[in-house]
Amino acid sequence: MSPICPVPTQKVPLLDLKPQYRALKLEIDAAIEQVCNSQSFILGPLVRELESSVAQYSGCAQGIGMSSGTDALLAALMALDIGSNDAVITTPYTFFATAGTIARVGALPIFADIDSATYNLSASAVAKVLKTDCIFDKGVLTHRATGRVVKALMPVHLYGQMADMDPLMDLAQRYHLRVIEDAAQAIGAADAKGRRACSIGDIGCLSFFPTKNLGAFGDAGMCVVQDAAIAAKLAMVRVHGMEPKYYHQIIGGNFRLDELQAAVLLIKLKHLDAWTCARQENACFYFGAFEKADLQATITLPYAPADTRHVYNQFVIRAPQRDALKQFLTDCGVGSEIYYPVPLHRQACFANLGYNEGSFPYSDAAAAETLALPIFPELTRVQLQYVVDCISAFYAQAKT
Fold first, then answer.
1. Which residue of 7, 41, 169, 293 has the fewest CB atoms within a 10 Å radius of its CB?
2. How many Cβ atoms from other residues are within 10 Å of residue 166's Cβ?
3. How many degrees, rounded to 5, is the angle at CA 362 between CA 345 and CA 171?
4. What CATH topology corresponds to 21-269?
5. Where are the domains of the chain?
6. What confidence tens digit (pLDDT) does each residue in 169-216 have?
7. Which superfamily is assigned to 271-399 in CATH?
8. pLDDT above 80 (res 7)
9. Residue 5: band (very low, low, confident or very high) from pLDDT cuts 50, 70, 90
10. Within 13 A of 388's CA, how many CA atoms are on the CB side?
């Protein structure tokens, strides 16, 4: 018999953006009104200010605002001239846009498995793919099965913590690969050396989707880079490859960041570190509360290597009877989500790649066992404790 939740005593949504807006309402409303009064909506001064501010925050030289995190990835691939004869190595355990944009430019996604503790792309798995599935000859890396040139590596900084970049960058250097960091969920995350997400590879890609730690009032994103030539290429790509006006050097797209979104994001950026601290404090509360509830042997809590900065876009546990637990939490009034129930190598649109359910066991296990719990900054201690109590009640009933 499935565990049954008693009468819910709390409502704990997975995410509630309304308290954040209420706290900033006067300032945000005034900024939006200022943009409306200016009637400067496209690539205006606020976009330029946001680009500079986010680049500095991310430890990068320049930022190029984009219309979404997905378009940031797409523009990055286009700026590095990755196309139909090429391939990119990435993770199968991520949001669809990571591999979807690779396919959209006509390139081949090549998957490598994740690290079972961090859920990020495993350097050892990438090394195995490079050794067994590719040929490196005269400075060119070729995919054995398709003959495509492998041009890039796209690690994802999943859930708010960075992938282990040093061994990945070593592989990229050895095999002459460009590196695109997908940091859609990880603005401000840092490794043990203090390097921020997006500051290590050739191009870093950020998402400002409303659910992100720094969220816009709609779709928005950014590429951040160290290299001025790449920045200039990205700036052309986002306006149909145009430079100067009406002269098209390359074929790009319409990937511009709106001035209205920049106005909102500039205000929110001032609060991002405080919100990150609140997320980290909520995570610490969870760790302590789960230990007090004697659940650490039942569920697996997020792993963050020492001295790193995990920004907890998601707080993801690994849980036995995951689907039943999710339903139990729903019945108790607690929001949760599965990120991601179907890894990319098992998505119908990638069936032609030839992977199967056993191709990437760590990714398959994560998809079957992980569950994201509420972690947003405005949660109260009472709400957090209620989440832990509900999970404790579920496993207590499951034992009887």
1. 7
2. 14
3. 80
4. Aspartate Aminotransferase; domain 2 (3.40.640)
5. 21-269, 271-399
6. 999 999 999 999 999 999 999 999 999 999 999 999 999 999 999 999
7. Aspartate Aminotransferase, domain 1 (3.90.1150.10)
8. no
9. confident
10. 23
